[in-house]
Design brief:
mainly alpha, two-stranded antiparallel ribbon, 2 domains, Transcription Regulator spoIIAA, globular
Length: 578
Amino acid sequence: MSAQGRFRTQSYPRKIASRLRLWEDALPKSIQLFSNYSFPTFLNDLTAGLTVGLVALPLALAFAIASGVPPASGLYCAVLAGFLISALGGSKVQIGGPTGAFVVVVSGIVAVHGLDGLYMCTLMAGVILLILGLTGLGSAIAYIPRPVVIGFTNGIAVLIASTQIKDFFGLDPPPSADRFLDRMWALAQAWHTANPWAAGTAIAALAAILLMRKTSPRIPGAVVVLFAGTLISFAFGLPIETVGGRFGEFPSGFPEFHLPQFRPELMLGLLSPALTVAMLGAIESLLSAVVADRMSGDRHNPNVELVAQGLANIVSPLAGGLPATGAIARTATNIRAGARTPVAGMIHALVILSILLFAAPLAKHIPLALLAAILFTVAFNMGEWREIGAILRLSWTDIAVWSVTFALTVLADLTVAVEAGMVLAVLLFIRGVTQTTTVSRITPDDVYEGEQHSLQLNEIPEDVALYRIHGPFLFGSTAKLAVVERDLPGLPHVVIIRLRNMTALDATGIHAITRLAQLLRESGRVMLLCGMRPQPLELMDNANFQATVGPDNICATVRVAIARAGRILADRRRDLER
């Protein structure tokens, strides 16, 4: 048999094995992990599921009330969507359910189209997410610039907090304004109606949550505050508004499935909100999955995750539930509580279902001031406020994209904000790429400088891995840096990233390189950067990137970087010999 024939014969098993791995990776994590499941693992999942189920209870109620829908809608979503996202998702420890990101969008849809419009919109968003996952377009989320993501996250946090001022202080009559400025003006006019009992309860609850987070971070402060505050309020008959006082009797039992009333005339008007819900759901679920990967050491499948998110958002409105996505805070709580597999997320959904079946009537006594205090902490935590300072130190283009997105999210609506932010980002992207094109005459100095950067003229030591980024490293291209993460287990002690041919950089690119530097440092490795051009170097200086890798590890040329790597390796050998 010829060598070519032997090669083809030997390649068939490899191709079969590769296809089998692809099929296995396309399965939900719950199925992949089932064969190795054990009783000790179940005990860990049980503890985590009980913990995160109790944490999710007040949040599900608060998100529903803040969205202007019945409280049970939040619980139905947490039960159905939470179970499906864990059972069918591509992340090992992801927790799904209603989140703060949807509050502003849902309240706007309900105000214009009613509950039937919300259910139709959620169904449409579920279908969009399902298509994204099945067609492998989950990676398209990387094309949303980081300033846009931070801008609408900051804006949503501000809007959530503004909607809770009324219940936090017990203002009466409640303002009916939908726009932020109108709402704030109405609140100012109703300030004299504040209820001191409601304000005192909310302030005490907020202080208790913050104190417990600082002194006992493992204890879920929202859960303690919810139960203790409700018990005190009921026992002493405090004159403050409760869930039952505003919404009447709280429904109990299993969610009842029914098809929402289909209204074809709403479909065109709901298309833009549905795209917004789908985009928010995809972004937050994949961000949550990335956080879960870092904390658990796993690697999620984004397309399988989006399929699960799509199915969850198709099923949730059939029972009158809210839109759902991955919840970063609850996922982190799940991992810290000891979760090992998706079983923990399924148990979390069953815990909420048990409360619906056996303790739902007690929920009507929950003071709205307590839920407002809990949502204040949610708004603060989701705001990513530290990112604002980082963006303001970058280029004026990143600042402009963030400012427009943030301002329109608060003052107009989220759909308009994201659309405007994306259009502006694309225009600035085109401008940034065109500015990287240069025409110049080659001089002897250019030839000498090229030798300092040449890979052919500078030998790379065996204990050093060298990668290069070629072309503009802007939003949409940063996912390609994952090749370094995939190689991580086999990488040597020093990793050099050559940036000689990286012609442009933006906030999303800096965030990706920063994340890689942190990942390498956590694994005990050293990252060096070399050969940066003026625009990326200036942007990294503005972002204080030297603090991430160390000023000595940012080198002018590849020759300098290789020399620096040699010194690091020599120092390491001496330390090991001692």
